[in-house]
Amino acid sequence: MTGFGKVTAELPTKKVTVEIKALNSKQLDLSTRIPSIYKEREMLIRSQLLKELKRGKVEFSISIEYIGKETPVHINVAAIENYHNQIKKIAADLGVEEPADWFQTLLRMPEVIKSDIVEPDENEWNIIQRTIEQAITQLHEFRKQEGVMLQKLFIQKIENIASLLSEIEKYEGERIERIKVRIMDNLEKIAAKDYDKNRFEQEMIYYIEKLDVNEEKVRLDNHLKYFIQTMESGQGQGKKLGFIVQEIGREINTLGSKSNHAEMQKVVVRMKDELEQIKEQILNVL
Question: 213: helix, coil or strand?
Answer without folding.
Answer: coil
